[in-house]
Amino acid sequence: MPVFTSVFGVSSAIRRVRVAAAAAALLGASATAWAVPTTYTGQGFVGPVTPPSSSGSAAFVAQGNYLVAGVGSFDLVSSFMFNFVSGTGAGAFEFSQGGNSFSGSIATSQAPVAAGPGFEISYAITGGTGVFLGATGSGNGLIRLLSDPTSSPPYAFIEAGIMNVSVVPEPATGLLMLGGAAALFGRRWLKKA
Asked: Which part of the chain is CATH 2.40.350?
């Protein structure tokens, strides 16, 4: 028989394991926003803010409204450079929901989609504010232009894809949670000893 069970008894050892498991579950649950792939859909408008350069590059801005399954609605603002010759682009984005937002970089490339011109888009999430402070993650989607690209901008678009966002609590919050778990564990330990 192990030493700790002979000294403290089997039932108190099991209770300590349960308390430690509950504390670990609490810490894990509070450390993520939605750390599983989640579908999203959106719509908005995109258009150039500068004329194309001699190499075919132009600055663009996109704005839209998005719905992330199980999480809620977000506003998108994105600014990026797009090259008409290569059909690729790169820039920055921010999804906001009141005082909470997550942001990072995007990369786009032309792609065939049903019923119109389209683009593949990749999101690299590198930060955020509010509940998304310290956010990391990624996303991938397809965008279809609803407007004729030969018409005057801005162009209406729709987008659908998958997003995966993880949030690590800031150090002060993490220390408070660890302190609370340690106090709970210590209280149970002293009560049973």
From this structure: 34-168
- Say what percent of the chain tops pLDDT 90: 59
CA distance 34 to 127: 14
**Other Cβ atoms closer than 10 A to 44:** 20
Q: How far apart are CA 116 and CA 164, in angstroms?
A: 27
Q: Looking at residues 96-125, what average pLDDT do you find?
A: 92
State the residue for tokens 């009560």.
191
Q: What one-character-per-residue DSSP string does 64-126 give?
A: EEEEETTTEEEEEEEEEEEETTTTEEEEEEEEEETTEEEEEEEEEEEEEETTEEEEEEEEEEE
Question: The whole model's pTM is what?
Answer: 0.70
CATH code, residues 34-168: 2.40.350
Residue 123 has pLDDT above 90, yes or no: yes
Segment holding 142, helix H or strand E: strand 135-145
H or E element in which residue 118 lies: strand 116-129
Contact present, 16 and 185 (Cβ < 8 Å): yes
Give the whole-angstrom CA distance, residue 95 versus residue 123.
Answer: 11
- Report whether pLDDT(19) > 90: no
Segment 22-52, tens digit of pLDDT:
434 433 333 345 667 899 999 999 999 999 9
Q: Are 108 and 82 in contact (CB under 8 A)?
A: yes
